[in-house]
Every structure is written in C-alpha cells, then in structure tokens.
Design a protein that fits this description.
By secondary structure, the chain is of the alpha/beta class. 19% of the residues lie in helices and 41% in strands.
C-alpha cells in the first residue's frame, strides 16, 4: 500500500491576498487557480518553489464558524514547517519582504530554525535540517 498527503487546507480570508502573501512574499508557486461556479469558490493551490508532493489549498472561509479560526488553525502552536536548503537565504528574503518573525533564528542539534507568522497569524517554522532528515 502506498499513500501520501496531497493537499493541506489552510483557511484564508480572501484568495488574492493569500496568493499575494504565499507567492509574493514566500516565493511559493501558484499551482492552480480555478473558479468553481457551482460552489462560487476558487480552487487555489500553492506550494514551495521547486517542491513536489504535498501542497496547500487556500480555502476561503465561507461562514462565521470558519472565519473565527483564521490564523489559529493549530490553537496557537506552530502549525506548518517549511524546510529549506538555505536557511539564511530564505530568512533574509522573507525579512526583506516584511514577513514577521516571532522567534529569532536558533541553532539546534538538528539544524537552524526560526518561527514566523503568515498573513493571518498562523505560526510556521522555517527550518534547515543538518542531520540528514528529509
């Protein structure tokens, strides 16, 4: 048996502002952006530049219940982990584009890591492993 994660849904307020952040500030690729008239929504998928595998579905919050979870999909803990092959390149690029880091870079046994917020407040690790893990 072979299984893998394909997409992870991330609640967003509006598609275009989310695309601007993920593509414009984080440098992600816009994989798909298709209007679905039957549901009056868009199917918007992004993923880190050059990545294969799991991507993020930018899912517009469609009711009050969903809207209350914007920026807090993991209860205030780090929610997503962005692995990089060059921490300092990406840290400097993100900082230059106004990405807010809430924990400064720290060296750990497994690599270097810092925590940043996405445009809604969800916490992410930017991490470069040095211990051989994928």
């Amino acid at each position: 048996m072979s299984q893998s994660l394909t997409h992870l849904a991330l609640l967003v307020r509006e598609y275009d502002e989310a695309i601007a952040f993920f593509v414009g500030k984080l440098g992600f690729d816009l994989v798909e952006d298709m209007y679905q008239p039957a549901q009056d929504k868009r199917w918007v998928v992004v993923r880190p530049a050059g990545a294969q595998g799991c991507s993020i579905l930018l899912a517009r919050a469609s009711n009050v219940h969903q809207t209350q979870w914007l920026g807090n999909q993991a209860g205030g803990r780090v929610f997503l982990f962005l692995r990089t092959d060059d921490f300092w390149r990406d840290y400097r690029a993100f900082t230059a584009k106004g990405v807010q880091f809430v924990r400064e870079p720290a060296q750990a046994d497994y690599g270097v890591v810092a925590v940043f917020k996405d445009l809604y407040g969800n916490l992410w690790d930017l991490i470069e492993y040095n211990d051989g893990r994928l």
